[in-house]
Design a protein that fits this description.
Strand content: 15-25%
Number of helices: 7
Low-confidence stretches: 17-21, 58-65
Number of strands: 5
Helix content: 40-55%
Structural class: alpha+beta
Oligomer: single chain
Mean pLDDT: 76
Amino acid sequence: MAGIKRASDGQASAAKRSRPSNQEQDIISKHRLESMEKDDLIAHILKLQAQNLSTSQAPPSPPATPGLSEEEIHRKASKARVMMEKGIKSQMKWKPSCKTGGARFSYSGVVASTQVFLKMFRLGADWKKKQLHFDPVEFQHTTSTDMSTNIRYGYLNITGKNVTVRWDSDDLTFTVTGSYGL
């Protein structure tokens, strides 16, 4: 008898559909509210207030994620430095403007927390600015990276007066810009 379905009498499903929910039971027309006695009206108001209070109190939020340990901060900062170095080096390609040191690079990165950014650029915890300026040698020393790329007959290095690091604390993103050349 596979494939034969039982016919329903329709009464059970109709009963399920006609049952009002709690919210529908709580909604009372204006006319009915005006005709209610004072005690019933007060009881209804207290019931609605209790429901409103229980729904307005959000469930307790999960505990805030604890701060990263010093080891995790160090590991994430080190990884972000390596990614930044690779990203900048990948942009350092030969262009005619490399002869004059005017070729530009721009690297944008995201870090896990402000502490990682501060550790990455060796800044103090009280640093609150949005922009940093390094000279090229200081930038390489601060980030412990060697920003030179081998080309056919020489090397491309970071040149120019400074390397700029912009920090957006809201999005936890940073942008490093500068110039490179022979």
